[in-house]
Amino acid sequence: MTPNAQARKIYIYIKIFYSLKDSIKEVKRQPTQSEKISANHISDTKIISLSHLEMTWANRRNFPALLVRILHKSKLRYYGKPDKKMIEPYQTFLEVADSSGTVSVIMWNALCPEWYKSLRVGLVLLLQDYSVKKSYPFRMQPLPVDPQIKLISTMEICLNLRDPPTNIIIIPEKQVKPEWRLPKLNHRFITRSELDDMPENHICDVIGILVFVGRVQRSKKKENREDFWSYRWIHIADGTSEQPFIVELFSTSQPEIFENIYPSTQSMTYFVCTQLKVVRNDAQVPKLLYLTTTNESRVFITGHRGQPYTNDTKVKNFIHWIKTRTDSEEVKNTVIGGYYPYPPVPETFSKYSSSVKVESLLTAISEVRKEIEDLQYREQKRIAIQGIITVIKYIPHASATENASTSETLRNANQPSTSQAARRENQSQERDDNKRHQDDDPVSSQCFQTTYTSLSPTKKKRILQGPYAKLIPVPQPETSAQTKGNKPDMPSIFQRRESTSTSTIGKARKTISDRWESQLWREKKFGLIDHLHYSHVYPESIPRKFIFEQRKFLTEQFNSQPAKYIPPEGRPPKLDDFKSARSLGHFEVTILGLNHEIAIDVAFLPMYCPEDLRTSQIDTLLTCMNYSCVYPQDGAGNDRLPGPRALAGDIIKAAMKLDRVHIVGILDICNLGNNKVEVYLHRIYSPTNTS
C-alpha cells in the first residue's frame, strides 16, 4: 500500500530519525582473527603512497594497499529516499593521511553501521580492495592537521561492502613503526580567555565543565524540506574567564552522548568537543560570539583515558584547575533545559533582514496560526510580524505555569496531529482570554498595584555582561527601560534560588499597574475578526536548577522522544517540582495588527534573579532585549536592588511609551509536542531602530 502524502512525510521522518539512531548504536565491531594476523604482516604487503596514487590512479585497474591515519571523521549521513529501495543508505567521510598527503575516504552503505563506531580519529588503517574516483568539486575538506601536508582534492577513496568488497584492517598503535612517518594528531585547544581574539570561522577544540545544557530542538536543513538538524545550546566553563563558551551543539552521530548530556556535578566531569567553528560579528549590538559544531566535530564526556588530546598542554592545565576546586560556584548554579533565546538578533531591523535567509521576511499576523500548525515536533523557528502593542500584563513567577500545568493534565490521550493540537490550544486560550476580558475592564485593570524604586535620571546604572562578568558603569538616560550603553556579548541563564530576603526595594516613590491596556485596544478589541492566543508558558519552557539525583528524569524531559518506550520506575516527579532558574515571571503581550482587525497574544520571558547580581539578566522590552541585567549603582543612600515587580514596572512603562507606535516583533515559535506550542517575543523593533 502506498502511503498518502501526509503519512509519507511522517514515515520518512521516523525512518530517518530512528533507523539512524539504531544503526549507530550497534556494538563496536571487533577485528576478526584474520585481520589481526594481517596486521602483523604489513611489511609483506605492497603499499602505495597517496601522492603516487594521485598521479597514477586514472591508469590503474588494481590499487595497492594504503597505510594511513584517520585525522577526521564526519557525521553519519542518511541519504534514503521514499522511492529508492536501499536497505542501508548511509555515507560517512574520513580524512586520512600518510607522509605524502591528505585525502578524503567515503564509506558507503552497509559498511557504515558495521564500522562507524570502531573507526575513531587517530587510528592507523590498512585499506585494501578500494576504488578511486574523481572528487566531488563542491565539497569543502576540513583543514589539515599539519599545514605542510599536501591536501589532495582531485580524487576520493571509496569503501564498499562489494564492487569491490573493501578490506579494512586496524593497526594497533603499539605496532605503528616510526619509519612509516605517519602524521601525528595536532589538536587546536583554546581557552575561553583566548576566544575573544579568535577570527571568524577559526576551527578549535575546547575542554571544560558543563554549566548549562539546553533542550533538544530541531531546525529544517532546507526550507520546504522534511529533513531536520537536531541541536541544543550548552555553556562550558574552563576557569580562564568569567564567561563560558556558548556552543551550538548539533547531533554528532553520537546519540549515546548527545542524548545523555547533563550539567557537571560535584564530581566535575569534564567535557571535550573538537572541530568547533567560531561564529562572531563584532559589528552587531550586542556582539555575537559563539561556537558551532562542524561536520567533523566529536564529543567526549567519558573515556578520556588514552585519547590523543590528553597530552595537550591546555588540557593538562584544565585538569589541574579541576583538581584544585572542590565546591565551585559553576557547579552550584548549573541549569538544564527551557527556552533559550539565542543567538540574539541585531540592533536594527535592516541588519536583521539582511541576516536571515527566508522567502518572506515579514509574516502577517493572520498567517501565524498556519506557521505554527506547520511546525514539526521540536522544530523551532523565528518569524517577524508587524503591529501595535496594545496590552501588557505581568504574571508573577509563582503562577507562571499554573494554567499550563492544568492544560497538560487535560490533553487528549489520542495524541492528535500538530495542526489539531495548535487549533485546540487556540480554542482553550480563547476561553481563558474571554474570562480575562470580563475581569480586566479599564477600571479593574488598574487594581493591581506595586511599588518600585524610581531611579534618578542623573545616576549611572551598571550593565552585567555575561554570566560571571564584572560590573561596568554606563551612562543612564531617562529610565531603566531606556537604558543604553555597552551591550553584553552573551546571555546568562545561571541564577540562584529565589528568596524573600530581596523584598526590600528601598523607598516607595511611585506606583504602577501590573497591567496596561491602551485606549486603542478598548476601542478595537470587541470588533476583531480574529484573536490568536499563544501566551501560555509551559513547564518545559522554564530553565530548571539541575539536581544530580534527578538527572535521569530531567535529561528525559529536555531530550527528544526516545526511540523505544521505557516505562517509568515508580511515580515520576513533575517539572514544576523543580526550582526555576528564573524569578521574574513572564508577561502576556497583545499585538494588534496594523489593520486593527486581528490580534495575537504572545509571551515575553525576561530573565532575572535578585540574589546573584553576577548571573542575573533582565530584558526591559526594547533596549534591554540585549541580554543585560540593569540595576542601580551602589551608593551611600538607601537605594537597593529593586525586586521583580519593580523591574516588571519598568517593562510595563516601556510598553506604555509605545502606545500607537508601529513595531516589528521577532517571535520564537516552537512545537514542544503533546499539544503544546510556545510563542515568545524575542525582540521589538520600533521606528527608531528599524533602519
Automatic annotation (TrEMBL):
Pfam families: RADX
Start and end residues of each stretch annotated as Disordered: 402-451, 475-506
Domain of life: Eukaryota
InterPro entries: NA-bd_OB-fold, RADX
Sequence ranges of Polar residues compositional bias: 402-421
Biased composition (Basic and acidic residues): 422-440
Record-given protein name: RPA-related protein RADX isoform X4
